[in-house]
Design a protein that fits this description.
Structural class: mainly beta
Strand content: over 45%
Radius of gyration: 13 Å
Number of helices: 0
Distance between the termini: 40 Å
Largest sheet: 7 strands, mixed
Order of helices and strands: EEEEEEEEEEE
Shape: globular
Length: 119
């Protein structure tokens, strides 16, 4: 059974850093485009960053560009999201997701991890 599990969330002060992990089981992350998304109450889920399966090219939302970095560790079947210079507006539940079917939208989601940035 294909599953994703996020970890690494927590409470951090403004300007601090966190690294989120997305570990896959039941399938190989290297062969899938993986995205990090976030959601706050009352708002739609938004994409934060993605890393492609073909050439590991990356995409970042304008709001996180230059502060967040997405990367893979294929040996650990894990995708990371390094978040630096965190701001209170980064507070959200962060989810990782995989496009396993290759249709350009995610079909497998993790359970989410809470990130809270205090001012």
């Amino acid at each position: 059974q294909a599953q994703l599990a996020e970890s690494g969330g927590g409470l951090v002060q403004s300007g601090g850093s966190l690294r989120l992990s997305c570990r896959g089981s039941g399938f190989t992350l290297e062969y899938n485009t993986i995205g990090w998304f976030r959601q706050t109450p009352g708002k739609e889920r938004e994409v934060v960053a993605c890393i492609s399966s073909s050439d590991s090219s990356t995409y970042y939302a304008d709001s996180v560009k230059g502060r967040f970095t997405i990367s893979r560790d294929n040996a650990k079947n894990t995708v990371y999201l390094q978040m630096n210079s965190l701001k209170p507006e980064d507070t959200a539940v962060y989810y990782c997701a995989a496009d396993r079917l290759g249709v350009g939208s995610p079909d497998t989601w993790g359970q989410g991890t809470q990130v809270t940035v205090s001012s």
